[in-house]
Design a protein that fits this description.
Layout: E1 34-36, E2 50-55, E3 58-62, E4 76-79, E5 92-97, E6 108-113, H1 114-122, E7 137-141, H2 146-157, E8 162-166, H3 171-184, E9 193-196, E10 199-202, H4 206-219
Parallel strand pairs: 7-8
Antiparallel strand pairs: 1-6, 2-3, 2-4, 4-5, 5-6, 7-9, 9-10
Length: 221
């Protein structure tokens, strides 16, 4: 097993390949996804999940349905940080309609691949997916890493452009991370490793992230 895979106690499970036919779409229309039963429960006030909702100002993160404005509940990205590695599909994005629950107080959830989800965002409130070249932050992590998901949710909520790079699935991303870490003298004893405009952070600490963003932004003025 590669050393990076042993950084945390969690073991990496097998990931299923994305089905290219899953996202229903018609030319000129936004994709509608595929109705699925996600590997976690989305019901009631949806507490215990990471809920990302969108408006004309961009993404916002909420802890429960009741924190989301009623007009923004139709397309809410939902995720669970408690999924085991073999339960997580890195290519899947789950979007819930939190307007009205169905049977058993559960909400309808649709599965999108990442390209389909970007297309959905492109048609919502004029929100466009972030181009990789515009990103000021790179998150090096893995699909099973809860701290990586927390960092990405924080960046989304604060409107910070970022690129996600999976060091387990992409050997070039792993080498890139290690090269940067060696140059900066930063240990790679865990993930995420976050490149904030050339400054490397290990792990996710919101205060350290904000400080790095503020200080590196000042240095570029």
């Amino acid at each position: 097993m590669r050393p990076i895979a042993m950084l945390l106690i969690l073991s990496l499970g097998a990931c299923s390949e994305s089905d290219s036919s899953e996202t229903e779409t018609t030319e000129g229309e936004a994709p509608v996804g595929e109705v699925v039963d996600p590997p976690f429960t989305v019901a009631g006030d949806a507490e215990g999940l990471v809920l990302t909702w969108y408006d004309e100002d961009g993404p916002h993160v909420a802890e429960r349905r009741s924190d989301i404005p009623a007009e923004s509940r139709e397309h809410v990205k939902v995720d669970s940080l408690s999924l085991a590695p073999d339960e997580r599909d890195p290519d899947a994005v789950f979007v819930a309609d939190l307007r009205s629950p169905g049977e058993g107080e559960a909400y309808e959830v649709r599965r999108f691949d990442r390209e389909g989800f970007d297309a959905l965002l492109d048609g919502m409130h004029g929100t466009e997916p972030i181009a990789a070249g515009d990103a000021s932050v790179v998150v090096y992590g893995a699909s099973w890493c809860g701290a990586c998901r927390q960092a990405e949710s924080w960046l989304e909520a604060n409107g910070v452009p970022f690129v996600e790079k999976d060091i387990e699935q992409d050997p070039q991303a792993r080498e890139e991370m290690l090269r940067k870490a060696r140059a900066a003298g930063v240990p790679t004893s865990g993930i995420p490793v976050i490149d904030v405009r050339g400054r490397l952070l290990t792990g996710f600490d919101p205060r350290a992230m904000q400080r790095a963003l503020d200080e590196t932004a000042a240095a570029t003025l």
